[in-house]
Automatic annotation (TrEMBL):
The keyword Amino-acid biosynthesis does not apply. Residues 1-20 form the signal peptide. GO terms for cellular component: membrane. This is L-type lectin-like domain-containing protein. Residues 32-220 form the L-type lectin-like domain. InterPro entries: ConA-like_dom_sf, Lectin_leg. Keywords: Membrane, Signal, Transmembrane, Transmembrane helix.
């Protein structure tokens, strides 16, 4: 307040105002070595642990996760956050596939350290900065000690319904490093991420990416904002994640003077009785009497017994593990084989890198040749062999197209196919009519209750007899003519045709008898 009054007085006097520099907010500052206030403002989860001069977010162990989060929240729209981060391993390899995540959230997910290390399954409201370690191959190998793989740094912004407000566009950049300062700046509704070496000033920081927030009040005084730092060591070859310092600035001085640590809180953490780690062991209600001494002695004995039993169990387990370990010579041979395998993989990596370069050169060469050929063909020079061949191909294609057009015209004027189809249709219709009639006749014959349309048995016999007689009379008249003719001849030639006369008489008798019946 005094500084603001001084600036107002200078303005009234016509002098240039003094612009206050942003100061750090102690609630979100992590200094090294550790201070007494560190444990009041920060808390760890998972395998994260405070050491005197650093915070181990994840140790160099496979498939481990650690979490550091601020106990306090802030309500700011314009702020700046800096994190001094180290990502490395004993082999100085860039191949481990771990990750580091920085969350600035508008709601507390209340999840475990492993959930934060794997992105909270995409269920968060706010901003996530993700560093995918060793995710991209380094194509710039001009430097002698250039890493084989680069880290991929990307950002993601989600609303309260866990929707990605950036769509499918994921801003990102690529950089290989072991020690780096990540600078996150929110101002005027825009979120920017800068990267710089820990020894470089903030003015020389390089912009990684910038995100336009949905509105200027995405981070505002209307709601609390939470801060989380998460690490994942990776499977197989792991990485160690160290956080050296964290700095937080209120760019518009809205909360200057609030929650400022006292001189006692800023003192270096030590092992005295007043340290925060021992405050819980000293009870204000303890009485300095014999009964108080006895209570403390009983508590001491319980703690000592538990400690001794755990120590003995731990020692026995160590001995059992040591007895089960392989011999020194076996371990040495395994180490030599591992070094040999590592050398082979290094050689393979170099060969694949060279192969990738050769393939890239050949691809560029093919593209160049094809581009030149296409340019020559497009120029229309008849002396060019490729252009002449193309013109010949196009002429032949046009001839074939003309032939197809003529064939189509001939087929369109040929009506034979239509006539055949018409005749086939008529035949099928006639056949269908005949089949229908047959089916009708069969249905009449097969019907059990159908009316009899024919003559009875007696009528059929009379009709048959009449027809037989009619036929016989017709035949008899015909034979009668023949007999008369023969009889006339026999009267003339009776002395020589007696056999004919006999046949005639027998036939007349047979017909008479048959006709009577």
């Amino acid at each position: 307040h005094a500084l603001r009054l001084l600036a107002a007085a200078l303005l009234l006097q016509g002098a240039a105002p003094i612009i206050a520099q942003p100061q750090y907010d102690d609630r979100f500052v992590l200094r090294q070595p550790l201070q007494n206030s560190t444990f009041n403002h920060w808390k760890t989860s998972g395998l994260a642990i405070f050491l005197k001069d650093k915070l181990v977010l994840t140790p160099e162990l496979s498939d481990k996760a650690g979490l550091l989060y601020a106990k306090n929240t802030f309500n700011l729209r314009d702020f700046e956050l800096e994190v001094d981060l180290s990502i490395h391993n004993k082999q100085s390899s860039s191949f481990p596939k771990g990750s580091f995540r920085l969350y600035v959230l508008r709601d507390n997910p209340m999840r475990r350290a492993s959930d934060f290390a794997h992105g909270l399954d995409g269920q968060f409201d706010g901003f996530q900065l993700l560093v995918r370690e060793g995710a991209v191959r380094n194509t710039d190998t001009a430097l002698k000690n250039a890493p084989k793989r680069l880290h991929q740094i990307s950002g993601l912004v989600q609303d309260e319904e866990f929707n990605d407000v950036l769509g499918k566009q994921e801003p990102q950049c690529e950089l290989g490093f072991e020690d780096q300062t990540i600078q996150l700046k929110s101002k005027g509704g825009e979120l920017s991420v800068y990267l710089r070496d820990s020894e470089t000033s903030s003015q020389n920081a390089k912009l990684c990416f910038s995100i336009k927030l949905p509105d200027e009040d995405f981070f505002s005084e209307d709601h609390d904002t939470y801060l989380f730092l998460s690490g994942y060591s990776g499977q197989g070859l792991p990485n160690e994640h160290l956080v050296h310092q964290i700095r937080f600035k209120d760019l518009k001085h809205l909360h200057d003077g609030e929650e400022v640590d006292s001189e006692e809180d800023r003192r270096v953490f030590s092992g005295k009785a007043k340290d925060v780690l021992r405050k819980g062991a000293i009870k204000t209600q303890d009485e300095f009497t014999v009964e108080g001494y006895n209570r403390q002695l009983v508590r001491h004995n319980k703690i000592y017994s538990q400690l001794v039993s755990d120590f003995i169990s731990n020692s026995e387990q160590i001995v059992n593990i040591l007895t089960s370990l392989p011999h020194h010579e076996v371990v040495a041979q395994m180490a030599e084989e591992a070094d040999s395998i590592n050398s082979r993989f290094t050689l393979l990596n170099e060969q694949f890198t060279k192969y990738e370069g050769d393939i890239g050169w050949y691809r560029d060469y093919i593209h160049k040749v094809m581009a030149e050929r296409n340019e020559l063909r497009q120029q229309g020079d008849l002396n060019n062999k490729g252009f002449a061949e193309q013109q010949s191909i196009m002429a032949n294609v046009n001839k074939i197209n003309t032939m197809f057009d003529s064939y189509i015209d001939i087929m369109s004027r040929n009506h034979l196919l239509e006539e055949i189809n018409s005749f086939d249709t008529q035949v099928k219709q006639f056949d269908k009519q005949m089949v229908d009639k047959d089916e009708q006749l069969l249905a009449k014959f097969d019907a059990n209750n159908a009316q009899e349309e024919f003559l009875s048995k007696i009528e059929m016999q009379n009709l048959f007899t009449q027809q037989v007689r009619k036929i016989m009379n017709k035949q008899l008249r015909s034979l009668d003519k023949d007999v008369k003719l023969m009889f006339g001849q026999s009267s003339i030639l009776g002395h020589t045709t007696k056999f004919v006369d006999i046949i005639m008489y027998l036939s007349i008798a047979f017909l008479g008898v048959f006709g009577y019946q």
